[in-house]
Structure formats: structure tokens, C-alpha cells
Specification:
Blueprint (H helix, E strand, L loop, with lengths): L1 H25 L17 H8 L3 H43 L28 H29 L2 H30 L7 H27 L7 E5 L7 E4 L8 E9 L7 E8 L2 E9 L6 E4 L2 E4 L9 E9 L4 E6 L2 E6 L13 E4 L18 E9 L5 H8 L18 E4 L3 E4 L2 H5 L1
Antiparallel strand pairs: 1-12, 1-14, 2-11, 2-13, 3-8, 3-12, 4-5, 4-11, 5-6, 6-7, 8-9, 9-10
């Protein structure tokens, strides 16, 4: 009976050792199980009760350990399944983003939205592209009308011939644009060839620009360098003219010019002069529903001009740094005056004078909503205040009229950008 009891105790002891050892291995070997030797003649069960926890407590501990191990295994299996699902979803997302429709570039990346196209503006969607092409066509038409007027006044057979050819090309372009509009509205498969068709249209437009430029060059050869006008047919952020030299430091000034515009709302910015650290050193602007304003060192005076009627008008603004006194003249007549416009602040040198755009930074930061739309001519700047009589002579094309001693209107003094064009201009002919 004692032998049988001893055998049962040995089996129970060994079974407990195996269970505890398995549990310790499942926990990554962070714990150890220690077996204690007992004398040969000692009762194993008694030794177990003496050196370890009571039998019932040992059984309870073993069961708790097994249950903990099973829970840990189940948690690990669930986490592995979750990881597999997330990995599968990530692979599907990568495969879809790597091959977007209409994308032919390696790696599936689309072209940068800020890439410039050949027309000088920012590339956008099909609708914006068509709008831009339509505006360009209108610009070309306007230039052709000017050529037609020139040919009528000079009886030029060559001008008429080129005009007819250009008109035919523009008609073809209009048909292409109309076809593109219909394709977009009807959702035809032809949209897949958008890049190729756009390339053909822009190539044709480039050819037209070159032909018109050649014709304008022939026209320029027959006119004096100061008998010209600048035309800004569209409200863009890329059409402008840059004066080649900076203004000097000035304690007084007079700015005069001829303007023609019917743009709404506001004619835009005929000119802006920026210097390092001050983009609004000297600006003439009319935008939104605001009246025309002159800015000096970012200080503002509202001017009483009404010129957006599509007719030529002569305007002048005078200013002196002492007390910031200013005067405004339209068509030779004084329309308003004031003071305290940037008093005792001289116009700074080493800046950049731009015609047709308002500068937010030195030489850049153009905003299409503030661009000048219309015609500009005979732009002059003096470093003194002109008298009432001198301004009247300028507005009435008197032989006594002077040219600006700071900036005089000459073709060789300007660089033209973005498609703005130059045409023959005679101020006195406009008045007759």
C-alpha cells in the first residue's frame, strides 16, 4: 500500500513538473522551474507538501498558468490575422495608386499641376485649357483687326494678303476648339487624344504668333520709335512690359500717359514700381469696384478719373514729398487734388518699373485680377511737378509738349513679355 502510494505521488510530482516547465517555456524562458532532491526513504508527497505549495494550490496554479498560455496564444493568432488583412489591403491600395487612368509616366505619378504650358499660363483641366485657348484666339483676332486698320490706312497689299491667311488659320482653330467643347460635353472617347490634339492646336497658335510678329516687325520699320502703343488684350498674369532702367531717387514727380480701356470691373494696373522691401513704392491701379488710386510707399490717394469707356484719355498725376501734395489731371483738366500722401518720403531708386501688372514682390507676384486690360501709350515720367500749362500741352498734342526727363516713351526702352503687342499710335490722330 505504501509502495502504491509512493508511485502515485511520483507520477503527480512529475506531471506537475512537466506542466510548469511547459508554461515557463511558453512565456519565453523568463522564469525557471527548480526541482528539489529529497532523501530516498522520505515520502515524496510529504516532501512535496513540505517544500512546495499545498497540492490543491499547486493544481490551481497550474490550471491558471495553462489558461493564461491559451489566452496568449489566441491573442497572438488574432493579431497575426489582423496583420495579414492590413498587409493585403495595403498591397491593393499600392497597386491601384500605381496605375491611375490617363497616366503614362513611370511609377504612376501625374505631372506637376504647376507646370507651365507653351502659352505662358499654368496648365489646368480641359475646361480651363479651352478657356485659355479661346482667350488667345480673341487676342489674335484683335491683332488682326489692328492689322486690317493699318492696311486700310497704308494701302498695303502684303498686309491684306497676310491678314486673309491668318484669318483662315484662326477660323480653323475656332473649329478645333468647338470640336473639343463638344467632345467634352458628350464624353466622347476622343478625349483620350487630348494631349496630342492640344499639341497640334498650340503648334498652330505658335505659328500664328510668329506670322503676326513678322508682320508687326515690318510695320515697325516704317514708324518713329516713340509713335507706338502697347496693347494688353487679356486679363492675365503673364502679359507685361518691363522698363529697362530703374528710376532715380525723386522728391517730386509727374507721371503722364494715354489710356484706352473698357475693362470691368476696373481697368487694372497701368504701371507699378517696386523696390527691395517695398512692392508698392509707386503704383497706379483701378481694380474691383474701387476708383483709380495712386500708391506711394503703400500710402493711398483716390483719383477722380473716369476712363473705362473704350475711348482714349490723357491722364497725369503730380506729387511732391513736401506735405505729400498731389494733383490729378484728365484730358488736360485738373480733376482733383489732396495732400498727406507719403509726406517727406522720397521715391527710392534701384527698383523695377512694370507696365500692365501689379507687383506683389520685386519683379513678380502678378495677379490676373489686377492686370491692365486695354491700350497704353506716351508714358512719361519727370522728376518735378509739371505746370498746368505743360500738362494741357501734352493732352492737346501741342508742339510745345515735352518728354519725360526720367523716362521717355521709346520702343528701345522696353522689353515685352507674354504676348502684349505694339502698334503704331498717333495721339493727335486719335483726337481728330
Amino acid at each position: 500500500m505504501q509502495v502504491a502510494r509512493r508511485g502515485i505521488c511520483w507520477r503527480l510530482f512529475l506531471f506537475s513538473c512537466l506542466l510548469l516547465e511547459s508554461s515557463c517555456q511558453d512565456f519565453g524562458g523568463q522564469t525557471q522551474f527548480i526541482c528539489t532532491s529529497v532523501p530516498k526513504d522520505m515520502d515524496i508527497c510529504a516532501a512535496t507538501l513540505q517544500n512546495s505549495v499545498p497540492g490543491e494550490d499547486l493544481k490551481t496554479t497550474v490550471m491558471q498558468l495553462r489558461e493564461t498560455v491559451l489566452q496568449q496564444k489566441e491573442t497572438i493568432m488574432n493579431q497575426k490575422e489582423t496583420i495579414r488583412e492590413l498587409t493585403s489591403k495595403l498591397a491593393r491600395c499600392e497597386s491601384q495608386s500605381g496605375a491611375e487612368p490617363g497616366d503614362a509616366r513611370p511609377g504612376g505619378r501625374r505631372k506637376d499641376a504647376g507646370t507651365k504650358n507653351t502659352m505662358g499660363d499654368v496648365s489646368r483641366g480641359p475646361a480651363d485649357t479651352l478657356t485659355q485657348l479661346s482667350q488667345t484666339l480673341q487676342s489674335l483676332k484683335q491683332r488682326l483687326e489692328n492689322l486690317e486698320q493699318f492696311s486700310r490706312s497704308n494701302n498695303s497689299v502684303q498686309a491684306n494678303s497676310l491678314k486673309d491667311l491668318l484669318q483662315s488659320k484662326i477660323d480653323d482653330l475656332e473649329k478645333q476648339v468647338l470640336s473639343r467643347v463638344n467632345s467634352i460635353e458628350e464624353g466622347k472617347p476622343g478625349l483620350r487624344n487630348e494631349t496630342e490634339q492640344r499639341g497640334r492646336v498650340e503648334s498652330t497658335l505658335t505659328s500664328l504668333h510668329q506670322r503676326i510678329t513678322d508682320l508687326e516687325k515690318g510695320q515697325r520699320e516704317n514708324r518713329p520709335l516713340d509713335k507706338f502703343q502697347l496693347t494688353f488684350p487679356l486679363r492675365t498674369n503673364y502679359m507685361y512690359a518691363k522698363v529697362k532702367k530703374s528710376l532715380p531717387e525723386m522728391y517730386a514727380l509727374t507721371v503722364c500717359m494715354w489710356l484706352k480701356s473698357n475693362a470691368s470691373p476696373g481697368v487694372g494696373t497701368p504701371f507699378s514700381y517696386a523696390v527691395p522691401g517695398q512692392a508698392n513704392e509707386l503704383v497706379l491701379i483701378e481694380w474691383g469696384n474701387n476708383p483709380m488710386e495712386i500708391l506711394i510707399n503703400d500710402k493711398v490717394a483716390k483719383l477722380p478719373f473716369l476712363i473705362n469707356d473704350g475711348k482714349w484719355h490723357h491722364i497725369c498725376v503730380t506729387w511732391t514729398t513736401r506735405d505729400g501734395v498731389w494733383e490729378a489731371f484728365q484730358d488736360g483738366v485738373k480733376r482733383g487734388s489732396g495732400e498727406n500722401l507719403a509726406p517727406y518720403h522720397p521715391i527710392k531708386p534701384q527698383g523695377l518699373l512694370i507696365l500692365g501688372q501689379e507687383q506683389d514682390t520685386l519683379g513678380g507676384g502678378f495677379d490676373a485680377t489686377q492686370a491692365f486690360v486695354g491700350d497704353l501709350a506716351n508714358f512719361h515720367i519727370w522728376d518735378r511737378k509739371l505746370s498746368v500749362g505743360e500738362i494741357y500741352n501734352l493732352a492737346t498734342c501741342s508742339s510745345k509738349a515735352q518728354v519725360g526727363n526720367v523716362f521717355a516713351w521709346m520702343e528701345t526702352s522696353l522689353d515685352i513679355y507674354g504676348g502684349a503687342s505694339k502698334w503704331t499710335f498717333e495721339a493727335c490722330r486719335q483726337l481728330n
